[in-house]
Amino acid sequence: MQHIRNFCIIAHIDHGKSTLADRLLEFTKTVTHREMQAQLLDDMDLERERGITIKSHAIQMDMKLGGKDYVLNLIDTPGHVDFSYEVSRSIAACEGALLIVDAAQGIQAQTISNLYLALENNLTIIPVLNKIDLPGAMIEEVSDQIVDLLGCERDEIIHASGKTGFGVDNILQAIVDRVPAPTGDPKAPLKALVFDSVFNSFRGIIAYFRIYDGIIKKGEKVKFMATEKEYFADEIGILKLEKEAKSEISAGDVGYIISGIKEAREVKVGDTLTSFENPCAESIQGFEDVKPMVFAGIYPVDTEDFEELREAMYKLQLNDASLTFEPESSAALGFGFRCGFLGMLHMEIIQERLEREFGMTVITTVPNVSYHAYLNNGDMVIVNNPSDLPDPGKMAKVEEPFINAQIITKSEYIGPIMSLCLGKRGILKNQNYLTSDRVEIIFDLPLAEVVFDFFDKLKTVSRGYASFDYHPIGYVESYMVKLDILLNKDIVDALSAVIHRDRAYDWGKKICEKLKELIPQHQFEIPIQASIGAKVIARETIKALRKDVTAKCYGGDISRKRKLLEKQKEGKKRMKQVGSVEIPQSAFMAVLKLD
Amino acid sequence: MESEFVVALKKEISARKNETAKVETIYFGGGTPSIINPKHIQDILTLIYAEYTVVDDAEITLEANPDDLTTEHLQAFYDAGINRLSIGIQSFDDEYLKWMNRSHTAEEALTVIDRATQIGFKDFSIDLIYGIPGMDEKQWQQQLKTSASLQVNHLSCYCLTVEPKTPLDKFIKKKIYTNTDDDMQSKHFKLLMEMAPTLGFEQYEISNFARNQHYSKHNTAYWEYKPYIGFGPSAHSFDGITRRNHASSLIAYIQDPIALIEEALTEEERFNEYILIGLRTSKGVNIEAMKNKFSETIYTHFEKELSEHENKEHIYIQDGFLRLSDGGKMYADSVASAFFLV
Ligand SMILES: Nc1nc2c(ncn2[C@@H]2O[C@H](COP(=O)(O)OP(=O)(O)O)[C@@H](O)[C@H]2O)c(=O)[nH]1
Prior knowledge:
The complex is a heterodimer of chains A (about 600) and B (about 350).
Chain A: E1 4-11, H1 17-27, H2 45-50, E2 58-65, E3 68-75, H3 84-92, E4 96-102, H4 112-120, E5 124-130, H5 139-150, E6 158-159, H6 168-178, E7 191-200, E8 204-213, E9 215-217, E10 221-224, E11 229-232, E12 235-239, E13 243-246, E14 248-250, E15 254-258, E16 272-275, E17 294-300, H7 306-319, E18 324-330, E19 334-341, H8 344-358, E20 362-364, E21 371-375, E22 380-383, E23 395-410, H9 414-423, E24 427-435, E25 438-446, H10 447-451, H11 454-461, E26 466-478, E27 480-487, E28 490-491, E29 497-500, H12 501-518, E30 526-532, E31 535-542, H13 555-573, E32 576-578, E33 581-583, H14 585-590
Chain B: H1 2-15, E1 23-28, H2 38-51, E2 54-64, H3 71-80, E3 84-90, H4 94-99, H5 106-119, E4 123-130, H6 137-149, E5 154-159, H7 167-173, H8 182-198, E6 202-205, E7 208-210, H9 217-223, E8 236-238, E9 242-245, H10 250-255, E10 261-264, H11 267-280, E11 285-286, H12 287-293, H13 296-308, E12 315-318, E13 321-324, H14 326-329, H15 332-339
Helix pairs in contact in B: 1-2, 2-3, 6-8, 11-15
The complex binds guanosine-5'-diphosphate.
């Protein structure tokens, strides 16, 4: 075990994590330069374009140093709060972390919560000042920041450039020297942490694990402690560029298991893998069943594509266990699914994957969190869909989920961040100065206010210099109402939202204005109304189209006009008809981006 | 440039002489052909007569701006064989002429017909624009009355349309000009449809009005989906199936006047066009003729749309023809596209 080092990389987006990881793999000859062409650790298309690693992966490197052979396991971590639980499990599988900081950007707050997570798990932190080849590198200044943050010595900071390869040898040396070798008892019963799983269309689910104690042998019967499912270890192995099958893997090491698991749901990140014959006494701490935080309806644009959408959702769920869905129907949109997501980014990813991998264009309805409505008789109703909110007359109270948010920022941004949080119905809990100009602000916030555009707003008001992390703290009674949107007097159920009473007026007004902009004129006037129950709180009117006739139609005009009208008709086909009003898809989407 | 253009044009005219057996109308239009030296018009007509079989009573129209039509030029055009003038009067009001950036005055607009009549022209069409911001119904009414008082037997009335990316569009976006008003424009159109018959003008197409059946033969051919040949930059040709057109660049045209961009229309596209233009005419769409022109699938689609049309009051069938009601004319594009196959 003395020769193993398990580590991850913590970095703000674009600080060079992927590039540097590539250099490490090259230096250790784990992959050749040619194989490197694609960024290896990010192997989903989607991830590459977004510049974030959605799902963690792992890769093993071999290295000779000072005459000894070492095995280095690099465990990649996703970089978005939607996936914070997965990050925490990846970190829990390591003994060390490289903290990469862009020398031209300095410490960016987004990585700080991951850094804290690493410190909480007692990881050894190796600070790396990256991109020192840049002319704008501020070596002294950023080194000061790192020293401030970590309380480390200046000479512990390694200077590197993922671009030129400078410093890569020092990084590897430091990993060997500074990161402790794993500890654990190979003779004890098998105890391994599942930190990730991926779906392979030929092999089913491949689970990635880190062994704490014991040995896993090919063919043995294993058990996942949380799910209580048992399987045979059909194939086990280590992760190089390709999977490398082994007959056994021992304590301290990282590996994969293929055991005929077909669906991602069957394997839970954070679960403990043990032996069926000789199970360990206790599972590894920290397992959480990740629950969806945001719910929204997903509908096919063309109602006839419902079955196709169902197929696609099933397939997505095979490799994304955090996605939940159940059929629902809407008067406006027909048949679709009420889906649960980890967060807004997750929701966007699902939407994009449906589009890219299945060629399905979908309409997503106003996302909402899960409310608890208590009826007068004491019964509790879970409200994942605005239409499930009981009649106010029958309802004793509604509770909404709250989170505890930790925001770390520079002192100059306290003001705007405070007003942002207060504007989102936040309750200030605490405020600490970490260093002379770094502040930690703790707020309790309604989750509903956070899921929408909170990150974007936070980024804007803090110029990107604010980290944000949160955890749920339970349900709090709130004055929630159902806001309906009526077009030409008909309720468009897909536009209804559960919203706090104090925010309803503003929301209603904005949504009416937006719809007025997006719904094309009809030959009749269309009133747009926002209402709570029978009470209209906002209204707009789309004027009737008085005429629709081309002035000149000779020779070449004919085909020009024909093409234009054909295009319009094509667009109209994709509109949804509610009552007599035709609503473009963009109108359903626009509510997601209301300012 | 002008003579180079004419050389190219002549080259094209000669090169394409086998495309038609017989020429019934000739139209000099698109832009302002009236600024061209009348001698060139003469040359071109001579060439067409030499290369093509032109029928005896051919309609030969020249599109012209009032200020280009001096007595001298009128005489020359007349001598060259032009027998119909389509004059871009636009308005009899200096305020609106200025607004539209026209170079002629109301005075010139009023006198040009007389001048041309004296030379011997008998067939005139004039263009008018309505729905200009600030123009009220009374003013529009006055324009129509003035037109009727002149010796013109054909009137084209166009609603001011703001095409994207034009200077007008930019001015409106920058709020230098007031935007057009949909309500007001539709009122003008209604007024036009009501008044035209009282002034002796028959609305034989959405934007075209004729006195004593002096329909534009040339434009009627477009609407009847007949073949035509277009010469010059941007000009379109149509043989009943394939549309061909020149690029809009004059320089490219001079370099290669025979280069044509082809676009074969699918049956659906031809159907769409047929409906689009057919509905615009007072004659309407000949339902029986559709059966012969299009496949059964398409005809079935047409019949289905006909029976399910959402705005029944916009259309009616009479003597086997599908026509737009006056209310339907306000929404001619929507009505047509409802029938479209896409
Ligand atoms: N100049 C310079 N650019 C780098 C260096 N490392 C990465 N980059 C560039 O920085 C950007 C982000 O790098 P990437 O590795 O994708 O960052 P990640 O988001 O942290 O994985 C890319 O455009 C890289 O080409 C470096 O050492 N020097």
